[in-house]
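A reminder from the course coordinator: this example appears on the midterm review sheet, so study it carefully.

Given structure:
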C-alpha cells in the first residue's frame, strides 16, 4: 500500500494493519473513553458532598430573625440576621438537606417566613464567612426541628436526626 506524506510527492510505504490490531486498538479506545467518562462523572459527586468547608468540631447557636427560607433541590437554605458579640447585625446563610429529606424530618416549605424569631444551631465554615450547615432550629413556639447532618460527631455517631416538641 502506498500513501503520500503530507505536502510531499514522495511515496511512503505503510504496512497494512492486521484485523487483530484494528480490533485491539478499537477496544482500547472504547475502554479509555468509558474510564475517562466514569472518572469525570464521579469526581463532582464526591466533591459536592464533602464536609471540608465546614468546621465539624464547632457548633454555633444564635437567636436570629429569618430573612428568607429557600426550598429547592439540591439543598434548602435558611437566611437569617443575628447579632455578633459586638452587637453588629450579621447576615447568615445556612444550608440544609434536600426538600424530600426535610419533609421526612418534619420541615415544610411553610416552616419559616421572613420575620420569624428562631434559635438556630449550625456548623460554621472554616474560613469565618457567615455561612453554615443547619443542625437544629428552635421555633418561637418551642418546637425543635433537627436537620439531618451527613457528617459524624466526634464520637462517630450521626448527629441531628428527627423532630421533637
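Designed residues:
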Amino acid at each position: 500500500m502506498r500513501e503520500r506524506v503530507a505536502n510531499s510527492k514522495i511515496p511512503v510505504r505503510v504496512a497494512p494493519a492486521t484485523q487483530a490490531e484494528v480490533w485491539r486498538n478499537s477496544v482500547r479506545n472504547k475502554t479509555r473513553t468509558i474510564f475517562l467518562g466514569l472518572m469525570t462523572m464521579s469526581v463532582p459527586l464526591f466533591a459536592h458532598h464533602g464536609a471540608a468547608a465546614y468546621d465539624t468540631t464547632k457548633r454555633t447557636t444564635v437567636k436570629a430573625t429569618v430573612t428568607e427560607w429557600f426550598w429547592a433541590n439540591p439543598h434548602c437554605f435558611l437566611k437569617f440576621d443575628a447579632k455578633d458579640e459586638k452587637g453588629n447585625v450579621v447576615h447568615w446563610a445556612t444550608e440544609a438537606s434536600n426538600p424530600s429529606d426535610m419533609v421526612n424530618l418534619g420541615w415544610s416549605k411553610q416552616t419559616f417566613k421572613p420575620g420569624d424569631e428562631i434559635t438556630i444551631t449550625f456548623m460554621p465554615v472554616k474560613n469565618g464567612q457567615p455561612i453554615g450547615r443547619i443542625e437544629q432550629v428552635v421555633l418561637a413556639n418551642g418546637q425543635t426541628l433537627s436537620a439531618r447532618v451527613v457528617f459524624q460527631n466526634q464520637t462517630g455517631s450521626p448527629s441531628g436526626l428527627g423532630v421533637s416538641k
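The first helix runs from residue 19 to 48. The radius of gyration is 28 Å.
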